[in-house]
Design a protein that fits this description.
Blueprint (H helix, E strand, L loop, with lengths): L3 E2 L1 E10 L14 H12 L18 E7 L11 E10 L4 H31 L10 E3 H6 L3 H15 L5 H16 L5 E6 L7 E2 L4 H21 L26 H6 L25 E2 L7 E2 L1 H24 L1
Parallel strand pairs: 5-6
Antiparallel strand pairs: 1-7, 2-4, 2-6, 3-4, 8-9
Helix pairs in contact: 1-2, 4-5, 6-8
Length: about 325
């Protein structure tokens, strides 16, 4: 059983470059190259592996990477959109995006220096690669004139009715916001691309302590009856609906919403139940893979008995 559940943010980056013909690379700055530098720096970044309650953190991983072109040509891509799975056990959305901004600035500065050195090595002339600013989608959206903001809102409404995934909606809206801004690259714009899952954990209040006691009594009885051992982890690592029922902090939801351009399509009010809750479920291996499986004796014999005993212990505690 797990006393909490990790939070998940789908961090996104719209990378805007300066397109150039492939025969004149020094006249532009490839959005794909900028994105590649950011992807390499962010993968498994230790500063984003957030551990709490003695549990080891899980670092971020890239989930998708695509350029914004419709077909093949020999001009460097103007935009690239990337998404990362970023888990946390307590760190908030502001701190997460702040850490990602620092990573992006570091990656951009390193790339600019490397490209300048390569150009000079080829041409023999000093090179000046432009700086690559990093900002957020909320900052971009807030800078739009009123008419452009209205067009962006209308596009968001239209996309919400087309049934496409939230990451795809957010990608298209980020590209639209960038176009409406009239700005030129290079730039990196960070945000979020899907419904957030908040990190939650069983607290230390009276009701939470009562649930802990009920769990301990039920576990002891089940272990004796079935001759097994039931372990405890602080956080379920695979995200779960416990994020919307357990004890967590929803104060940063407005920040998440501002940086999720398709927020209206999430269907979430931004509230959580904030109740003492735990995750007691089946045990298995390799979830979300072709080899996903569970341990049948535990799932169909031990677990039902465990859940029944927990319910009885909680009800008996409430009756007292």
């Amino acid at each position: 059983m797990a006393l909490g559940s990790v939070g998940k943010l789908l961090v996104t980056a719209l990378v805007a470059g300066v397109p150039a013909h492939a025969s004149q690379p020094y006249e532009g700055l490839n959005a794909g190259t900028i994105a590649a530098a950011l992807v390499a720096r962010a993968e498994w970044a230790p500063e984003l592996a957030d551990g709490q309650e003695g549990a080891a953190g899980i670092p971020p991983v890239l989930l998708s990477l695509r350029d914004g072109r419709e077909g093949y040509d020999v001009t460097t891509p103007a935009t690239v959109f990337a998404t990362w799975n970023v888990l946390s056990q307590g760190r908030g959305a502001m701190a997460t995006l702040g850490a990602f901004r620092a990573i992006a600035l570091e990656a951009a500065a390193g790339l600019a220096a490397a490209l300048a050195a390569r150009q000079e090595a080829v041409t023999g002339r000093p090179a000046e690669v432009p700086g690559i600013p990093v900002s957020t989608l909320a900052e971009l959206a807030a800078s739009l004139p009123e008419a452009a903001a209205e067009r962006l809102a209308a596009r968001a409404t239209a996309l919400a009715g087309e049934g496409m995934s939230l990451p795809d909606q957010n990608r298209l809206l980020a590209e639209e916001a960038w176009r409406l801004s009239g700005r030129r690259g290079p730039a990196i714009l960070l945000g979020f691309g899907a419904l957030p899952y908040l990190p939650v954990h069983l607290g230390h209040g009276p009701e939470a302590q009562g649930l802990r006691g009920a769990l301990d009594r039920a576990r002891a009885a089940v272990e004796a009856a079935h001759g097994c051992r039931i372990g405890t982890m602080e956080f379920f690592p695979g995200i779960s609906n416990l994020s919307f029922f357990g004890e967590g902090d929803a104060s940063e939801v407005p920040f998440m919403a501002a940086n999720t351009l398709a927020w209206g399509a999430t269907g979430w009010s931004g509230r959580i139940a904030n109740l003492p809750a735990v995750n007691v479920g089946p045990w298995g291996r390799s979830y979300h893979t072709p080899l996903e499986r569970l341990h049948a004796p535990y799932a169909f014999d031990v677990l039902p008995d465990f859940l029944l005993r927990i319910a009885r212990e909680v009800l008996a505690t409430d009756a007292r």
